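Figure-free illustration: sequence to structure, shown twice.
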Amino acid sequence: MAERSKAHDWKSCRVNSPPGFESLPFRRFLIFTPRSAVPARSWLVLAACALLVLAFAPAQYFGRQQDDLLYYLGARALASGRYCLETSPGCPPLAMINPGWPMILAPLAMITDRPAAFQAFAALLLAVAPLAAWAWLRSRFDETTALLGAALTASSPLLLGQSGVPMSEAPFLLVLIALIAAAQTGRAAAAGALGAALILLRTAGAAALPAAVIPFLIARRPNKVATAALPPLAAYGLWSAWSWSRTRGIDKISLLATTYHGGALFKTSTVAVANARYYASTWGECFLPARLADGPLPLAVGAALGALAAAGLVRALRRRRDDPAAWTVLGFVVLHALWGWQYERYLLPLIPLLIWALAEGLGRAAKPALAALLALQLGAQTLPRLGRPSPYSRPELERTYAWLSDRPRPALLASAENVRDGWYAELPNVALPDEESPEAFAARLKDERVSYVLRQDALDVGLTADPGSSLRRGLEHAYGYLNDARLFRKVHEEPAERAEIYAPL
């Protein structure tokens, strides 16, 4: 109990570092850990965690999620002094992705444009996540609990599934932990700077802003409230102003409006319930064999873990009502209750926080329970996948891309996932237009001088209410227009890939 009591004494934390290191000006932005020396076993466990993450890289082929390709292209554009999509005619502005991650990648883009270098960098950055989780959890719990949390983080299939993928979740996780550490030690300037970094990495960083501000609000420190709140607000304002000046829109606000177009109140509750089921099942699957991934069992496991985590939040807030970790979790609960998209990777930055809340809810049973969960996760998910080829190692439309890449140039491709499809087809590309009639659709494609239109059936766009969404309806309308023989001709199909290619007449 003495060890646990000391771990909760946030003010007594410092960086374990060589003499003289604490005088460096940037040390205040690092994650604080307790004064006690780090045992040798901890370094061994943390090294194993990092190696485990690296062993799964690359977990997916480059560009599978399209956003990773957009970040890469954004970095290349920044390295050349602009911020636009160079694979589309006219280099349209990249207003759909926040510039924080491309800014981090830009120096690498100045050295090389090989995707493998970006995958390696992403894997190395993600390998730091277990260390960051341990460093922060060590300020909350004893050493063993912190190590269990690090191991659960490193072995999570949610994290390993993104190893070597140049997405923004890895830097987001690291900055999020640093923000919580800054807020819990009363460093308003650091919290404000890190909040701005979160917003520039992903607009979802807004969910963590209560953690940066509420401790100072409760303490009635208006100066520190302003210091913590103004940088992220300024960062979002500047990014939104730039986006509006280039596109007359703000991407995430437009997406949210699309989700709730009509029947907003009803859809809000529908999205919240559907997302709760999805994320509870996703978390529950981490501790079950693949053969049990379908059905009610993952949902039951995830719901039980969620209930324990909720109890942990209540306990943490009763102990300290300005606890920034608790407010961060609550902020993301609200975000994912409203946001109309579902992806497993959305949970990745929250893994250390979920483990913390779970440990809080378990109380004295935390160590044996976390050890049991670790054994289940390793045995059911992690070790069976270790050393085996990733199911996402090759593009799903590989044969379709090969056919397109052999077409005479110049040619322009239009598709729903145009950036990814154009990258592998080695063709400049545009998105499918949104038009109300086959004639207008065809005319728009002709105006843009599109040579080929790719249709991919069963395309998962990640929407919560997918079948009834305006995005899905627009996609189905576009695919329906391609059946008009007066306007389009089918020039190729790959039944095994559920893909067809059309040419405008």
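We now fold a second protein in the same way, so the two outputs can be compared directly.
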Amino acid sequence: MNKKKMVLLQHYYNDIGGVETFLLNFVRQFHNDYDITFVCRDISLENAYMLSEYVDVIIELTSPLDCDICILTSVLVDKEYYYQINYKKVYRMIHSDWTAMKQFWSWTFEELDPKTEYIAVSDIARESFIREYNRDSVVIPNLIYNQEYDLKLCSFTRLTEEKGYDLMCKFCDLLDKYGIKYIWDVFGTNPNNVIPYGNIRLHSPIADCQRLMKAYDYVCQFSKTESFCYTMYEAWTNGVPTLVTPFPNAVKDVKEGKNGYLIPFDMKLTKKDIDKIINKVPKNVEYKQEGVVELWKELLK
């Protein structure tokens, strides 16, 4: 049975926002039920890549697009792209309390097709749109999508050659090979402008990364060389185990199954190895640095 073709047209995709959360949740939920194409000319490569895991993404629409259903995902519409979409049915979403929004935006409603049906995300949105623009809508609350993972990873690192981004990608391949649902948040500079791989999500670097570590199963550092891996020790100090490659101080201080696991440079890991990482996450990880303050005091006295 052929799936209905659906086009989602978004005028602008913020790096973060409620509409954007809805769109990601929507394609996660319905990508198996409909043949969905997401169209948005103004979207970051990272967000486009994330959506493309589930649906086709078009940033530059150069020819007409045919579909059964078109959903205008905001009251704001990219009209140039809209007029290139041939649909059988069209919906337009109402995400805001437009009585309140008039205090902040000078937007004026324009109906593009009298056959448009409207979808409001709440009774508040519906009532305000009736009040301001005399258009009724069906109320469907925004989707809450609970994405569960077998493994939640994070890294705080530059994405330069010696920091092992290629090894991180190979580890992603292993997780995919063995059917592991994972997410890998990477916070750091990206001088080579690498594109996120697998379920890696790239974020800007942050100060005081320790405050985020406890939200993850492991802190990862896949460097090809390190003389002192700050992140590894900070993770242990916060009770979080690590997955690290066998650079010298990792070989010296990682206690397999106690505070983390060593990941070989050649990435030759069996399913048994991966299962151990997932099912035997080290607990009660501890680390306390001793003697370093005293060394400085002795030197500087």
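Summary for the second example: The mean pLDDT is 93.
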